[in-house]
Known about the structure:
Elements: E1 11-17, H1 21-32, E2 38-41, E3 56-58, H2 65-79, E4 96-100, H3 103-118, E5 124-126, H4 128-134, E6 145-149, E7 153-155, H5 157-170, E8 174-176, E9 181-187, E10 190-196, E11 199-208, H6 214-221, E12 228-237, E13 249-252, E14 257-262, E15 265-270, H7 288-298, E16 307-317, E17 324-327, E18 334-338, H8 344-359, H9 375-378
Helix pairs in contact: 1-5, 1-8, 2-8
Amino acid sequence: MSSSSRRVPSTADVVIIGGGVMGTSIAFHLAEAGVRRIVVIERGELGGGSSGKPIGGVRAQFSDPLNIALGSRSLRAWRDFGQRPGADVRLDQVGYLFLLTSAEQAADFESGIRIQNELGVPSRMIGTREAQQLCPYVSTDGLVAAAYSPDDGHARPGLAVRGYARAAARAGAVFATHTAVTGLDTTGDRVTAVHTAHGRISCATVICAAGAWSAEIGDMAGVHLPVRPVRRQLAFTAPLAPPAPRIPFTIDFASTAYFHNSDDGLLFGLADPGQAEGFDTTWTPDWLELFRAAARRRAPALADMETTSGWAGLYEVTPDRNALIGRSGAVHNFLYATGFSGHGFLQAPAVGEIMRDLHLERAPFVDVTPFSADRFTTGAAVRPEIHVV
Length: 389
């Protein structure tokens, strides 16, 4: 699937910039719909950016109805991934368990669950004792309530990228890896060509799915995509004996500390509030002290567990922590799906469908106009997502 050693095709109907889970999902959905001459350009390896994370959460527990719809539609696609496109993503529907420590958090999650239930998501508020039964590591001291949805869980982003890419390649899509985009030609209100390190591609449509690097691509087209990179880190415990119980993806909402099963141990994560913006993905285990401090309060047995390794990747963050999905108003053949603020993997199947429909000028299953990048420049209503980790 790599064309790193040869020149890129000189013409394409669609050029997708970014070979992560979003770019490969879009390529698959377009190819499946009969779109030909698709070229996916990736500066490194497929899935080598933010999609490279070892395990990705999948959920429909959000506060914004659009995020709920994208998460719920995608959960169905993850369940069916073995048939379409035909790959095992090691989906484990253990549920998501949000641990809540204030009345304000509980009220926010209650209102979110009302919307989720109206949209067919089987989430519910539960008491502290049931939360501890679901996750025996949890201490109920200071817990007010919890929110739980049994259909949520986690899967493997790397397997999803490869599954989508193989199916798209079988349908004729070309994947140009180790190929940097160096510029875009625009004429009037259209992009006419993409310049890469391996040649120029004349094209009819460009789709930006470049994750944390999307602002730079947008600038090349004259389209403002307010996406900033923020490092997120996680760690793996040493193998546990006896093995860890099978637990939900468990999140202490106040501290953002989270943990869940991973092979023969547990995975730990936390959003460091002091993390500076930037593209640095060096793993620096000092953030683990923040995790351990939160664990001492909420899951004491985890606080002293030995960790053996870790991983750092990038969130692609927007000002309201919601995605940018749509077609540029100024450059009409420039589409974008980026800025997912940590929710890109779990929403990728639904967004692939939506980008297919926007390209084919069909109405998508849900109106994504509120996620237009124009919302930050036109004064349109901004809809902050509450359920952010």
